[in-house]
Amino acid sequence: GQSLEQPSEVTAVEGAIVQINCTYQTSGFYGLSWYQQHDGGAPTFLSYNALDGLEETGRFSSFLSRSDSYGYLLLQELQMKDSASYFCAVRGGDSSYKLIFGSGTRLLVRP
Amino acid sequence: DGGITQSPKYLFRKEGQNVTLSCEQNLNHDAMYWYRQDPGQGLRLIYYSQIVNDFQKGDIAEGYSVSREKKESFPLTVTSAQKNPTAFYLCASSNSGQGAGELFFGEGSRLTVL
């Protein structure tokens, strides 16, 4: 099967940098994605890594190490609106279409 | 506007009743998904479909059923066999299982069993 682990909560100050880690186990691996979800809303896509290294999209960056089955999401210049839950998700197992989510990290940004 | 429409947004059901949640997309995506989310928890995969007339079980398919008769529609039935159906249900679609295959989500359906 597939499983992902990420911290349940992270707190940071406005303007700071925060890193949310994710480790995964899967029998087959196609890529690691990150999604953001505000309370009561639907998840929205942030980034995707299929190969090792860092992908940068504005204030957000995502990193992947396939040999370590590990990735992280880096959020820079934190803003109050970044307070949300962040989920890593892995495409893997018996189908590249199968996307399994982690339990989520709740980020609280304080003034 | 292109997107995914889920209905109803809120639904109340008595124990022992089946209920069907609707999911329609006009993004011309091949793949569609159903996830369940409990308060403070992650998304758990119920069923997914790569193409019309084909679907696969996810991690928590017991007590649920789906159909994919049309590309744009992927309804989910929560049956009376589902022991704890009260949850937030999210439908999603993607245009590929390759590459990023970004999932686009609907606004969700919140089911409460009375």
Give a verbal description of the structure.
- The complex is a heterodimer of chains A (111) and B (114).
- Helix content of chain A is 0%, strand content 59%.
- Chain A has strands at 3-5, 9-13, 18-25, 29-37, 44-49, 53-57, 60-65, 70-75, 84-92, 99-101, 105-110.
- In chain B, the strands form two sheets. In chain B, strands 2, 4, 5, 6, 9, 10 and 11 form a seven-stranded mixed sheet that branches. A four-stranded antiparallel sheet of chain B has the order 1-3-8-7, with no helix packed on it.
- Chain B is mainly β.
- In chain B, 0% of the residues lie in helices and 49% in strands.
- Chain B has strands at residues 4-7, 10-13, 19-25, 31-37, 43-51, 54-57, 64-66, 76-78, 87-94, 104-105, 109-113.
- Chain B is globular and about 40 Å long.
Brief synopsis:
Chain A is an all-beta fold and 111 residues long.
List keywords for this structure.
A: 111 residues, mainly beta, five-stranded antiparallel β-sheet, 0% helix, 59% strand, B: mainly beta, seven-stranded mixed β-sheet, four-stranded antiparallel β-sheet
Q: Helix tally of chain A? A: 0
The low-pLDDT segments of chain A are none
Low-confidence stretches of chain B: none
Computed Rg of chain B: 13 Å
Largest interface: A-B, 26 and 28 residues
- State the separation between the terminal residues of chain A, measured CA to CA: 41 Å
Shape of chain B: globular
- Sketch the topology of chain A as an H/E string, one letter per element: EEEEEEEEEEE
Label the structural class of chain A.
mainly beta
SSE layout:
The complex is a heterodimer of chains A (111) and B (114).
Chain A: E1 3-5, E2 9-13, E3 18-25, E4 29-37, E5 44-49, E6 53-57, E7 60-65, E8 70-75, E9 84-92, E10 99-101, E11 105-110
Chain B: E1 4-7, E2 10-13, E3 19-25, E4 31-37, E5 43-51, E6 54-57, E7 64-66, E8 76-78, E9 87-94, E10 104-105, E11 109-113
Parallel strand pairs in B: 2-11
Antiparallel strand pairs in B: 1-3, 3-8, 4-5, 4-9, 5-6, 7-8, 9-10, 9-11
